[in-house]
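Write out this protein's structure.
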Amino acid sequence: MKIFVASAWPYVNSVPHLGNLIGSILSADVFARYARLKYGKENVIFVSGSDEHGTPIEIEAKKRGVNPKTLTDQAHEYDKKLFLETWEITFDNYTRTESQVHKDFVRNFLLRLDKYIKVEEDEIPYCEHDKLFLPDRFIKGTCPYCGFEDARGDQCDNCGRLLTPKMLINPKCALCGSTPVIKKTKHWFFDLTEFNDKIENWISSSRYMPENVKSVALSWVKEGLKPRSITRDNSWGIPAPFEGAENKTIYVWFEALLGYISATIEYFANGEEKDKWKEFWFGNNVKSYYFIGKDNIPFHAVILPAMLMASGEGYVLPTVIASTEYLLYEGQKFSKSRKIGIWIDEAKELMDIEYWRFVLIRLRPEERDTNFTWREAIRIVNTEINDDIGNYANRVLSMVNRYFEGTIPTPNEGSYTKDDNNYIQEINTAPKRMGDLIELGKLKAGTEELLKLARDGNSYLNTRAPWNLIKADKEQAANVLFIASNSLRTIAVMLYPLMPYHASRLYSQLGLSEIESEKWDEAGELKLKPGHKIGKVEPLFKKLDLPIEDEVKLHQEIQKKLEEIRKKVEKNRPELLR
């Protein structure tokens, strides 16, 4: 089985915030790490890249009087370093839309869709002051559906509906604020009407697609799919490949979606097996997983599969599109201008990055918008990470050291009690339960199985009390610590996708090495053998020393620290990202 994993391409006009991160890149990384243990590293590829074309970058470049690529070069490298080095994201290929491989692939792919592309004159708002057409984000106005007054020309950020510039009420030029006039211009359209029934049949019959994704896609189909313009009149982007479209570029959403394929091609391009990319895009032995925010559902659940179908080449359609709702920050939407929220280059100064990874997955908004609060974040770290997992590990290994000279004791299976057998059953089955949820894109739900195993382990110790058994019945104490030690190996493997460094530390304390070589399907086996020597035992985690009991004081401390961090971090950001 080949597993293709993708996260939505982050747009490089700003540093991603924690909500952006959990919606796509961090979630995809947790899944990719799991998939490598489950299916083998050679059978998994994980890609994404910087989305750097389109109107917001062009607007910013015009304001600054520089070439757009000057801005995106810096932003791409800055974001890439944050993802790979700070957040431990294990991309096989983190590329960019300025990649020549990407640009060539997109142009060639779109030419193969000629059967479904038609040319029409379109009426587009035109700014007479700035002397340019106003597609997408060059124009803002009121959403005709929900009344949001700051909707863009391609989508409303409030209700998520896709728009066209002509649909906006009271439209204004995003550059100068003047009211545009309507002018005719020629554009190339992808005829989605041809795929109404095909998309409906595909999405309805999917056994794995989340219900929120199905609902959005079927709502689109019910309204009737309409032709969507592939071309734009702006200059910063991939030149349109169609005859007669020499002065036009490709709409960023069409090209970014195709970036999943081009990134795979690029990854294998420099090796000896250049065609190996096809193993992840064709055939019945492929599953593909996309991690996105809910505002990107229409593009991934309708436009992407329609393009893949239109190619006629047999590309594998998405298996799971794992879409999150919104993560709020202390009850409010993230806002750079109002300094609400935390950005991914600030977070590392506030807390251990792997604590952040665990906290964000535990708060992952899988079914509804979720509120990040510092009170809850501290509870997760101090109770779930430190007490449930860390304290359990320390208790078990300290007793192995104390009672059995640091070696795994020899059990007597014939004298196992009901409590012993029940916990062994829990160890045997927990990884599969967690894995089944992860493969449905339910990462937060999957962590419940990890925590249940750790909490049940603590309860098991309290019930069996090996500190008492060692005095009265050493054989029973050996049974308990043999089983509990083996549960820690299972916990380490299950923890690895979330907290790879700390999971490796736990694995090392068990006297084991190279946790990456573990097999997920064997994680529930009792593989630690009697006589095995454990490693050096020390606390895995430490609690956050913050005044959780006094929320006013807590917020004051966090805000003061955050203001200090921002002054330092913003100086080091590239020009575009400040």
